[in-house]
Amino acid sequence: MNLFSEYRLGDLELTNRMVMAPMTRSRAIDGNVANPMAAVYYVQRASAGLIISEGTQVSPQGVGYIRTPGIHSPEQVAGWRQVTDAVHEAAGKIFAQLWHVGRVSHPDFHGGELPVAPSALPVEGQVWTPQGQKPIETPRALELDEIPGIVAQFHRGAVNAKEAGFDGVEIHGANGYLLDQFTKDGSNHRTDAYGGSIANRARLPLEVAKAVIDVWGPRRVGYRIAPHFSAHSVSDSTPIETFSFLAEQLSRLGLGYLHIVEAIAGPMTLPAGKVRTAPILRQKFNGALIVNGGYTAVTGDAAIKTGEADLVSFGVPFLANPDLPERFRTNALLNQADFATFYTGEERGYIDYPALG
After folding, report:
1. Percentage of the chain with pLDDT > 70?
2. Which string of DSSP letters, residue by residue, matches 78-100?
3. Where do the H-state alpha helices sit in the chain?
4. Residue 351 pLDDT more than 60?
5. Strand, helix or coil at 334?
6. Hey, which residues are catalytic here?
7. CB 179 within 8 A of CB 230
8. So what's the pLDDT on residue 112?
9. How far apart (Å, rounded) are the C-alpha atoms in residues 150 and 157?
10. CB distance 289 to 310 below 8 Å
11. Fewest Cβ atoms closer than 10 Å to its Cβ: which of 126, 153, 179, 273?
12. Which of 81, 79, 85 is nearest to 31 (CA)?
């Protein structure tokens, strides 16, 4: 087995084990509709075994970045349908990443209202709003009777993703966004049924997972985590215990895959003293395991061959190399990513990276 081996993900046959990781590109058009160029962008990368879309808001409340697409309006569903139809015509497979940013937002996105979070705690960092870059403000805590509405937002997002023609969905439970905020004790100081113990803090993520499974069935649903992510003032005092519990519970639900963001190379390498969670969670979760975080052709291949993971996701390498599987297969040189055009530039730095030949 290696990166180029076929893999059966539930009832889906993947042509290889290379996954295009979800990456915000900030090219959405008015109404947070996927840019028509997104069809070109994703088709160019359809040789991935599986594409996971950029984060896609499940509601207006879930918005925290300019020009990011949603999946909560008819126009947004129609925009994504153009993308999925094009990817399928190119023999690719694509999941939608369902996203609610929670407190990583600003009142400018919400008519002056504060963003929501598990707890009203200050947040370090800034966000780009329609009025420019601004500090993140202290959010308001969700009331207990509002939490079913969050679950409903993800359920509706899952329904809309099916209508839009996606092959499945990934729940975004990583990177300091709403579900991660509930999971980690540094950002969740609640004293009700959704705070305190690990089981309580995992309650909302598991309720969301069940609601999404009701739409898609368990094998077409994935969940993304980043146990050691610490930006946006999130942290957890016992990440191994916390995410072991979450992984075990998601496994019991029969979830298709667990996607772990845990850097092994580059500037985001795991901090000194932190224990890698992937080998531990591999024993806790019975579905497919996707690893992410600075993998190369060599280290990704090794992760598959040793059984550390079933699939490996690549972010920036896929961004800059639309034909990444072929480049890895032939040991070809890689295009270098233009960081200045990650979130701006329209077609430049988006659909103009050359393929081999």
Report:
1. 98
2. HHHHHHHHHHHHTT--EEEEEE-
3. 37-44, 74-89, 147-163, 178-183, 198-201, 203-216, 239-252, 278-281, 297-305, 316-320, 324-330
4. yes
5. coil
6. 177
7. no
8. 96
9. 11
10. yes
11. 273
12. 79
